[in-house]
From TrEMBL:
Entry similarity comment: Belongs to the UvrC family.
The protein's assembly and partners: Interacts with UvrB in an incision complex.
Domain of life: Bacteria
Full protein name: UvrABC system protein C
Task of the protein: The UvrABC repair system catalyzes the recognition and processing of DNA lesions. UvrC both incises the 5' and 3' sides of the lesion. The N-terminal half is responsible for the 3' incision and the C-terminal half is responsible for the 5' incision.
UVR domain segment(s): 237-272
One annotated GO molecular function: excinuclease ABC activity
Length: 700
């Protein structure tokens, strides 16, 4: 893709040794933009993509430009003339690199790739203001199921939405099940009804055709599911005419009860149809997107219009990282919306492959690179996509409605954000003051150990940045060298592994600079992924008092990081904050926002460790129970647990029920039942917590 490239160039080109010796200075002091400004004439005038990196090699901003020289020079003007966020970005950065490309389309693609790969914190990242529900039909199943859910999509299923309120779409689904009695029960309920030979309540009240007991063939049930999908996709006219003809035929044949049922079905369809008013009389499929912004933030609202009806809506908010105008903000949003494979949920996804892009995208502001964006979306859809700003008629009226919704969303978000942002800022300032830190701890890490009497020992690491969880940075540790219930030794191993990786990554990055390679220093050359431990925390929080803090301090001193990374412990009994080498703890007021933030951090580490421990313990129990069954390997054990859900349900299953699981025959199913019912000691259980303690007989 790239025609040429360049690494960062300082005003005076240093030698490799000078570049390495300058690294500690960069780490300790905020960078002066003039210290890493490329030499005059070294920046090309071609189109390209650039990225700013901090002293650790972490990419903090990615941008594109038609003329790289003009755009980059704008960052190195008088700093007082820059936007406040741009000032913070250029003073945080320590390097700038760029890659030259052929055209605007390539720059869009490369910019999106880098943003997804590096997650730069100074780029505009639109955050969904809430999780919207969708309606799903599991079309790839033998008997498709309909349900309301949230989250990622699955290949081979059909999705409708998103919808504004979960209760509204559930109410609609309940209404439609009287007309289209397809399966809506879970896999467990379906299998249990099939095994028992009688349907669930929905089968008795007419909201399900009961395929579980053979009342309907798979083909006939799929026809019902297809009619359901057709109605949800807006193709309701043919269904209504068909039901009207059936009602008339039933009345002619004196089948008045059936005619009454069909009449009620028509009423249900009319009720469900009224929930989605027609907004475009020509039956257009379109996404309608509007921006609302102020100097600090930008809000986006999108209406998904399918068949002329509004099928769903979503909203996003984001901080404005620089002085980018509405065209640039719209372009960034379109990249994020249609760049990922699971973002656009406004119409049925037949195969689950790739993003769904409608033929028409109506926007409140024309994107900066209109032609390139049109080509990109057309390539994604596989046919021509039109992007335009509506000027008159129904489409303009709809755009005005979406714009008002975006403005309202921004106003509501600002009301919520004001208190939330102020609270987080106050919490970080209180922690800084209480612990005597030079600056607020923008990155905090907490660690915890979980085990039961020395078995299945695991550790957890959670990360908070700017007072908010950064779950992509969470890490789990399986303790390798552990004896008994020595939590100090386990914590020593976890911290040692984390800090050793930090130093190894720093050494690797310093070696890259010494070799003259300052591009992608945070990328591991062996894996091609970002170095997960290369970012040092400002503060480490351990669960416990003075002994735990002392043990953690020994690890920091062992790796020479005691002066760079602050440390504290939070004791549960009185919620005291302990510092290294201090005789008395720091007592924060119970109403302190700083104490609340430390508690959240510690409790999140505890939750993360407990969750991992329970997963490993459950897996170990299953393996021990089924150990030695001929022909039962790891894959089949996993299949069993996915089918039955728990060891208790598996114990209650018969050989015939186990034999219905894919990959299990009668002989293997009987072997599993024999292993489950064998006379063996039951695990001891803590009666207070309900947790398994060790293998051994339980008390009578």
């Amino acid at each position: 893709m790239a025609r040429g490239g360049s690494t960062a160039a300082r005003r005076q080109q240093p030698s490799d040794a000078e570049a390495v010796s300058a690294l500690p200075l960069i780490v300790r002091y905020m960078a002066d933009p003039s210290s890493y400004r490329p030499a005059p004439g070294t920046i090309p005038t071609d189109p390209g993509v650039y990225r700013f990196s901090d002293e650790h090699g972490q990419v903090i901003y990615v941008g594109k430009a038609k003329n790289l020289r003009n755009r980059l020079n704008s960052y190195f003007q008088d700093i007082s003339a820059l936007h406040p966020r741009t000032q913070r970005m250029v003073t945080t950065a320590a390097h700038v690199q760029w890659t030259v490309v052929q055209n605007e389309l390539e720059s869009l693609q490369l910019e999106y790739t880098w943003i997804k790969e590096f997650d730069p914190r100074f780029n505009v990242m639109y955050r969904d203001d809430k999780t919207y529900p969708w309606l799903c039909v599991t079309w790839s199943d033998e008997f498709p199921r309909v349900f309301v859910g949230r989250g990622a999509h699955r290949r081979g299923w059909r999705y409708f939405g998103p919808f504004g309120q979960a209760w509204a779409i559930r109410d609609t689904m309940e209404t439609l099940l009287r007309v289209f009695p397809m399966r809506s029960c879970s896999t467990g309920v379906f299998n249990r009804a099939r095994a028992q030979g009688r349907p669930c309540l929905l089968g008795y009240i007419g909201k399900c055709s009961a395929p579980c007991v053979g009342r309907i063939t798979p083909e006939a049930h799929r026809d019902i599911a297809d009619d359901f999908c057709s109605f949800m996709a807006g193709r309701s006219t043919g269904l209504v005419h068909r039901i009207e003809r059936q009602m008339e035929d039933a009345a002619t044949n004196l089948e008045f009860e059936r005619a009454a049922v069909l009449r009620d079905s028509l009423g249900a369809l009319a009720k469900a149809t009224e929930r989605n008013a027609i907004v475009l009389g020509d039956g257009t499929d379109a996404d309608v997107i509007a921006l609302a912004m102020d100097p600090l933030e930008v809000a986006v609202k999108i209406f998904h219009v399918r068949g002329g009806r509004v099928r769903g809506e979503r909203g996003w908010v984001a901080d404005r990282a620089d002085e980018a105008g509405a065209p640039d903000l719209m372009e960034t949003f379109l990249l994020q919306l249609y760049g990922a494979g699971d973002v656009s949920r406004g119409q049925v996804r037949e195969t689950g492959q790739g993003p769904v892009v409608p033929r028409l995208v109506m926007v409140s502001h024309e994107p900066a690179s209109l032609d390139a964006m049109t080509d990109l979306l057309s390539e994604s859809r596989g046919s021509h996509v039109e992007i335009r700003v509506p000027q008159r008629g129904d489409k303009r009226t709809l755009m005005d409605t979406v714009t008002r919704n975006a403005e309202e969303a921004l106003a509501q978000h600002k009301l919520r954000r004001a208190s939330d942002l102020a609270t987080r800022t106050r919490a970080l300032e209180e922690i800084q003051e209480a612990l005597g830190l030079d600056r607020a701890p923008l990155r905090m890490e907490s660690y915890d150990i979980s085990h039961i009497q020395g078995h299945q020992v695991v550790g957890s690491m959670v990360v908070f940045e700017d007072g908010m969880p950064r779950k992509s940075e969470y890490r789990r540790f399986i303790i390798k060298s552990f004896d008994g219930s020595d939590d100090f030794a386990a914590m020593h191993e976890v911290l040692s592994r984390r800090l050793r990786r930090l130093l190894d990554d720093r050494e690797a990055m310093a070696g890259g600079v010494a070799d003259g390679d300052t591009t992608g220093t945070l990328i591991d050359p062996t894996t091609g992924s970002p170095r997960s431990f290369a970012y040092a925390p400002s503060l480490i929080v351990v669960d416990g008092g003075a002994p735990q803090v002392h043990a953690a301090q020994e690890v920091l001193e062992e790796y020479g990081l005691a002066d760079e990374i602050a440390l504290c412990g939070l004791a549960k009994r009185l919620e005291e904050v302990w510092l290294p080498d201090e005789e008395w703890p720091v007592i924060l007021p119970r109403t302190s926002e700083g104490l609340y933030l430390l508690q959240r951090l510690r409790d999140e580490a505890h939750r993360f460790a407990i969750t991992f421990h329970r997963e490993r313990r459950s897996k170990a129990m299953i393996e021990s129970v089924l150990d030695g069954v001929p022909g039962l390997g790891e894959v089949r054990r996993k299949t069993l647990m996915q089918h039955f859900g728990s060891l208790k349900a598996l114990r209650a299953a018969s050989a015939d029920q186990i034999g219905e699981v894919p990959g299990f025959g009668p002989v293997l199913a009987r072997s599993v039942v024999e292993a489950l019912t064998a006379d063996r000691p039951l695990p001891a259980v803590n009666t207070a917590t309900g947790e398994v303690l060790e293998d051994g007989p339980t008390a009578p």
